[in-house]
Amino acid sequence: MSETILCRKKSELAKVAQTLISTYPDYRIFAFYGLMGVGKTTLIKAICTYLNVFDIVTSPTFSIVNEYHTTDKEIIYHLDFYRVKSLDEVMDIGYEEYFFNGSYCFIEWPEMIQQLLPNKYVYILINENPSDNSRLVQHKAFRSL
Fold first, then answer.
1. For residue 56, what are the domain limits?
2. Contact between residue 64 and residue 98 where contact means Cβ atoms under 8 Å apart
3. What is d(CA 27, CA 80) in angstroms, rounded to the nearest whole number?
4. pLDDT of residue 145
5. CATH classification of the domain holding 16
6. How many structural domains compose the chain?
7. Helices marked H in the chain — which ranges?
8. Are 117 and 91 in contact (CB under 8 A)?
9. pTM above 0.85?
């Protein structure tokens, strides 16, 4: 069953980030769904701040993958598959190295590579409420055996 978090303003993103990471302590793959401009990268920035990333967090739309470092010497991967034209491109970047190494991996536009997602990941859907510009962050764990 999925849960939903209401986020009324950007200042609430830190709490949303904390909730997502603490709700899924055994998950490292987070797949972010939502329309262009809804706030996927902004939420990922908040999560990275919560995880003590000291690098600048930006959208990897053109590079496909950004690597960030934390104060605890951990590595976090941020992938964006918006511009991917084929699964061969994803194979060529060695997606397995990112998805299956035990590091946090935040994926934007996962619908482009849905069949490559691991069996265990967190689904996050962000929708905008047009009446007040708030965001509804729906989340749930996927785990197939």
1. 3-143
2. no
3. 19
4. 55
5. 3.40.50.300
6. 1
7. 13-23, 40-50, 87-92, 95-99
8. no
9. yes
Tell me the sheet residues that pair with 29: 105
Q: How many CB atoms lie within 10 A of CB 16?
A: 22
CA distances from 94 to 22, 43, 58, 66 (A): 29, 25, 21, 14
Cα distance between residue 113 and residue 68, in whole Å: 22
pLDDT, residue 38, reads 96
Could you report the per-residue pLDDT of 42-70, keeping only the tens digit for each?
Answer: 999 999 999 999 999 999 988 999 999 99
Amino acid at 57: V
Q: How far is CA 145 from CA 63, 82, 122, 133, 142, in A?
A: 32, 28, 15, 38, 10
Beta strands in the chain (DSSP E): 3-7, 29-33, 65-69, 75-80, 104-108, 120-129, 134-143
Amino acid at 134: S
Q: Which residues of the chain have pLDDT under 50?
A: none
